[in-house]
Amino acid sequence: MDVKTLCLGVLSMGDASGYEIRKVFDDAFSHFYVAGYGSIYPALAELEQEGYATCKNIEQEKRPAKKVYHLTETGMAAFRDALVNTYPNHKVRSEFMVLLVFSHLLSPAQVLSLLQQRLSDIEDNLLHIDDCLKREECAYQEGTKFAAGFARAALLAGKEYIEQNKEGFLGALEYKDKKS
Amino acid sequence: MDVKTLCLGVLSMGDASGYEIRKVFDDAFSHFYVAGYGSIYPALAELEQEGYATCKNIEQEKRPAKKVYHLTETGMAAFRDALVNTYPNHKVRSEFMVLLVFSHLLSPAQVLSLLQQRLSDIEDNLLHIDDCLKREECAYQEGTKFAAGFARAALLAGKEYIEQNKEGFLGALEYKDKKS
DNA sequence: ATTGCATATATCGAACAGATATATATCTTG
DNA sequence: CAAGATATATATCTGTTCGATATATGCAAT
Lengths: 180, 180
What we know:
The structure is a homodimer.
Chain A: H1 3-11, H2 18-26, H3 37-49, E1 53-58, E2 66-71, H4 73-84, E3 90-94, H5 95-101, H6 108-134, H7 136-139, H8 142-179
Antiparallel strand pairs in A: 1-2
Helix pairs in contact in A: 1-3, 1-4, 2-3, 6-8
Chain A binds a DNA duplex through helix 2 and helix 3.
């Protein structure tokens, strides 16, 4: 699924500017999708050209002017269509796991700090998900709640796995170190 | 971490051709990194140019000739250096979760098949991890075992979450459907 | 005062994913 | 046994996208 389609999705939740769409990706969508300005602004321009969205220039006092985009009916139809034809991939890209696989090339102290860093990042992610769920607009969306619960479950399991296996792992690494 | 660095990592486990490196990404690394030929072949050419790897043309009977790459000492040093300076990111890119968030735009039957598809994909991933661990070359690598366990834990938690909350989720969706 | 953060749009370059091209050999299945 | 699928092997091309950067203003904090 490309950024263009995802922008249609965000616009289906209400009119928004590029900056506001970016905030959604950075906030509510941050656990399962990344998109920066470099993808969003060109995507919006294309959506307007193709008639999937209309654009209104809104002047503001004491702030830069906004370009607020609004989803058209054909845009909504295109989004529904894209949803039905999207395979539900779920991919992980993890430098954390790469570092684990090559942990025999690191010092025990470096491996320890790697695990602690991951634990603290997981903690941040969990807090962030809870924050999102507290906002009223999420609480009524069954799909968002289910997705958040799914993400939460995976994060918690990872946290518990690290906590329960940390000592054993570090011990095994040091033992192999001494042997060589 | 870019594909070039990851290729150094694969070569640190033994000499290999581009095709063989691709197999490692597709197999043992598939749970946390994606790389295709379009990234690997150019990366290897650059590594050779920079003196991080040497290349030997190996003719084979009844098979196409191979270009087997071998890590140099400077290449190994560069890889160790890259490991130490890599932040342990762990990112998810999930069309599955996007579809969940917009599940109010799908029919209950489509949502059900979405969940079943994810469950069956998780099952495949779990079997694949177990397969990798059975191979002897993995069994002695503490880091690989730990990473596999970590991935396993997250997958299992996702599976259990879906199984335990599927009915409630589908029920809530249908209830909202009737109301509107 | 000045540093940093939030609002807002926009673009550039390097990297990358996925598909495609090409050629041969082996394995599978009706 | 022939057809088709799968495995070995290298290579390139295109569209997409990530991350950084540029530009401009207002506001809060130090």
